[in-house]
Amino acid sequence: MTIHGPNLLPDHACLIVHGSDRPGIVAAVSAMITRIGGNIVAFDQYTDDPVGGAYFQRVVFHRPQFAADRPSIEAEIAAALDGFELEWSLTDQSVPKRMAILASQQDHCLLDLLWRHRRGDLPVTIPMVISNHTTAAEDVRTFGVPFFHVPSVAGPDKAESEAQLLERLVGNVDFVVLARYMQILSADFLEKLGVPVINIHHSFLPAFIGAEPYKKAKQRGVKLIGATSHYVTGDLDEGPIIEQDTVRVTHADSAGELTRRGADVERQVLSRAVLWHAQDRVIRHGNHTIVF
Amino acid sequence: MTIHGPNLLPDHACLIVHGSDRPGIVAAVSAMITRIGGNIVAFDQYTDDPVGGAYFQRVVFHRPQFAADRPSIEAEIAAALDGFELEWSLTDQSVPKRMAILASQQDHCLLDLLWRHRRGDLPVTIPMVISNHTTAAEDVRTFGVPFFHVPSVAGPDKAESEAQLLERLVGNVDFVVLARYMQILSADFLEKLGVPVINIHHSFLPAFIGAEPYKKAKQRGVKLIGATSHYVTGDLDEGPIIEQDTVRVTHADSAGELTRRGADVERQVLSRAVLWHAQDRVIRHGNHTIVF
Amino acid sequence: MTIHGPNLLPDHACLIVHGSDRPGIVAAVSAMITRIGGNIVAFDQYTDDPVGGAYFQRVVFHRPQFAADRPSIEAEIAAALDGFELEWSLTDQSVPKRMAILASQQDHCLLDLLWRHRRGDLPVTIPMVISNHTTAAEDVRTFGVPFFHVPSVAGPDKAESEAQLLERLVGNVDFVVLARYMQILSADFLEKLGVPVINIHHSFLPAFIGAEPYKKAKQRGVKLIGATSHYVTGDLDEGPIIEQDTVRVTHADSAGELTRRGADVERQVLSRAVLWHAQDRVIRHGNHTIVF
Amino acid sequence: MTIHGPNLLPDHACLIVHGSDRPGIVAAVSAMITRIGGNIVAFDQYTDDPVGGAYFQRVVFHRPQFAADRPSIEAEIAAALDGFELEWSLTDQSVPKRMAILASQQDHCLLDLLWRHRRGDLPVTIPMVISNHTTAAEDVRTFGVPFFHVPSVAGPDKAESEAQLLERLVGNVDFVVLARYMQILSADFLEKLGVPVINIHHSFLPAFIGAEPYKKAKQRGVKLIGATSHYVTGDLDEGPIIEQDTVRVTHADSAGELTRRGADVERQVLSRAVLWHAQDRVIRHGNHTIVF
């Protein structure tokens, strides 16, 4: 499969390092990259407290024949970071992440992701779209993407429905996007899934948590509406926020108009969150994200 | 006293009409204005439901010798609206509203209002600034504005403190602005004051209601912070919203940096709310505002 | 054909009035609407100079059996405006405008308009898409919209190419949208076409007029890029601006990244301009627009 | 003199490195910082082309007794960068830059800078304000800042006027801010001054270069107005852009209203540009800036 776009970088790797801050981390990492014949093309770091804080680093480096030499490179990284209290992970920037999309009846976020992917603007593959409705089937398949229908069920059969999702997803995807999926996933499901899940909530969280945020926004008389993309955790609408944005509304905008205008913000916010996650720009830390 | 600025309009009046929608309101109002020799220079209307909804209208008209002929003009308005279920109010657009500012230690909103007033950008007079601290006294007096110090007290003496405020305010001002005043005013105070009170809250309400919103925003890890200007009611941070705005922040911004960036949004949002209120552009309706 | 969406209003009409300002216009129009049994649901007016300026008015009114009684209603309007120096036009708000889209290889604006139309967010019909390339044919037809291929030719055969466009468009459409069409249309073409043409230019006009604005923006080192939707006139990129917006960029964004981010702004700006035009909210006046 | 604010960092230094990109720069710099006992607290880099491009790096590091040991630290830096084609500069982050402000009759940018400085939000000292009018004298002195009046003269005596400016500025300031100074400075003046000059232009450059941009914006009918802060060069309004922003306007906004709304954007944009310059975040490269 050919992946288009400027975002996949042959012979490039991304090293994420995080843990306790201490002098010498940049020197250790950069010396190691020089030693293995790499060249740093992007470097970001952040410390949440200069004294005893948590440290976060993202380094993208070019290294000819990275994929072939990866085992020895990983050994070099482990050696360089020996003695620091740091965790690290390494990703091959020439390999797209596999992204499943879960959708429902609202199609604006779904189509926007499919369209951006086709343009080459998202460094991912999309092995499947799963919906609890069938309305989007033809649209999705027009993009050459497999479509599966897994109906949502409430009550005792919910576990069965989630089991069907897991059967399709586990092992086949690197992360899951809820493109206005509108179903609450159980903590058990999230644990069995084992990969990050990104949601788009149609409000500026923490305002208007829960169902029908546009209706609540209309009732409160706010002058801006927003959207929030966050990682899904067991606590509804409480996961680490990746990206947010707002748009101006007035008293004259009906709840329907809020929904229409909000849809534009939702798809923008979700697409940025997905892009940054796919580029390994987002580091989770407790209930926060560091976005480089 | 000379009032500068383009916003005070000699021989102009603003008529606000609101009540039950019914065909013929515009015709009745505009025919009346023609009849009295006026010319409409601004016209806005809004109905929250075309069928049986509430109706809101703001008309600014030019009428030579408005002030002299006001009694007969008011009689014409009453006659024109007879038979409709409408309330109305009339203001002379050549007369600035009298605005008191209540402030505390933070001076950014206070100075911004004083500075805009001096430039002629706010169609108000400022008969007094009252603060529960003395730090701003010299700054305020440099602008030629009287400064009073009324210390805030908690507990049983709070009523005494509010009485001192009322003594200075009642009868002397048309509305009050809380420019980061940081004290909760009692329902009893608001009732005795009898004029609108505009507050600036340093968050995008209804997110982060109550104290220390920037700290809460940092804890939640939001990617935007905001400010909200609203009319004060007995319910803390729940009054009708006049204006809101947001600004982008990142994980790297400390709580102090949020405070610094938020200050810019606060003064912008408050100054817009004050301007619109001073221009009779804001109509309260339940817990909402219509802003024309 | 059934048209979905809240924007088509049965038994509603929009009256646009513009010309020389004079007292009594609102009264004359509103009395007439009351006389014919109509109810005003939206009213906007603007005067560019209170003394001797140009006057613009947009009134939407509900009138049962508008379509059937239109001739007599038009006679009432003409009578009511007799004696004023005003032009007027009347549109039936239950009838969608017919919008043709001209496109080229870039598909983001094209697909966005087709998708918004399918959602019911644009009160138009789309009788055809014409492209000078064939790449979008299948996408367009998936939306149930006819697709025609008319190659662009430079030099002496350009007139022939434009003649093919005219043959398809004239009489069949109420306005034309250039969705990144990237071809300059001759003054002769515009005259023969005889309906408004809306373009999207990929810069914040008047900055970066002409070809390759993102490249020019990169060269100049701007910190924001933008998009501008305007009516097309014989002067390239000089027509009346309907809508504009900008988005923040940095030194680190390549020209390709500017193009990617700009695409989002372009489709947003164009969709707003198209919606407002379709709703008769935009009045042209010289090289300006009044947008109600 | 006591300097308030979180932006002055005792025992912190900022190293700016730029030149030809080559593998090993990060390793060389970070190893050197470790060697001298420093700890990196902020690190940014950018390459405009991975192959043979220009390289830019900003490193802030903490080093006890930096000021005392500066000569030996500079020798270490020179040694570390030996063999690379790089220029570098080092600044002590505990020492505020000395900023002169040149102003004219419009006071909004001037007062905003003075007020931010008093709050401790700008890591600078302000040794003087020079104006070609006397109107701001008392305001400036209220902030405890010296005020000088140097009238502007056109024609043959312009050199004399500039000589008076130079006499006050040269040797006493590290950079100069034109806070709506509205006078064109000669190339000769800029050369003799020898320090960076930051201007605020009241348009979104390159739109509306030259005089009266709000009037031009009104004439063109734009839907956004903006402001641009840039380094001053011999070419009017063509210097490297540091920061820009825009704000929405409508057909109904008069040229006066554009001026009023623009003033808010101007002071915001200028204050950000000044802050970033004062923090050594801005690197000039040809006609561009890299802003870290």
Automatic annotation (TrEMBL), chains A, B, C, D:
The keyword DNA repair does not apply. Gene3D superfamilies: 3.30.70.260, Formyl transferase, N-terminal domain. Its EC number is 3.5.1.10. Residues 14-97 form the ACT domain. It is an enzyme of class 3 (hydrolase). Keywords: Hydrolase, One-carbon metabolism, Purine biosynthesis. InterPro entries: ACT-like_dom_sf (IPR045865), ACT_dom (IPR002912), Formyl-FH4-Hydrolase_C (IPR041729), Formyl_transf_N (IPR002376), Formyl_transf_N_sf (IPR036477), PurU (IPR004810), PurU_ACT (IPR044074). Pathway: Purine metabolism; IMP biosynthesis via de novo pathway; formate from 10-formyl-5,6,7,8-tetrahydrofolate: step 1/1. The keyword Hydrolase applies. Pfam families: Formyl_trans_N (PF00551). It comes from the Bacteria. SUPFAM superfamilies: ACT-like (SSF55021), Formyltransferase (SSF53328). It catalyses: (6R)-10-formyltetrahydrofolate + H2O = (6S)-5,6,7,8-tetrahydrofolate + formate + H(+). GO terms for biological process: 'de novo' IMP biosynthetic process; one-carbon metabolic process. The active site is at D237. GO terms for molecular function: formyltetrahydrofolate deformylase activity. NCBIfam families: PRK06027.1, PurU. PANTHER family: FORMYLTETRAHYDROFOLATE DEFORMYLASE (PTHR42706), FORMYLTETRAHYDROFOLATE DEFORMYLASE 2, MITOCHONDRIAL (PTHR42706:SF1). Belongs to the PurU family. Catalyzes the hydrolysis of 10-formyltetrahydrofolate (formyl-FH4) to formate and tetrahydrofolate (FH4). This is Formyltetrahydrofolate deformylase.
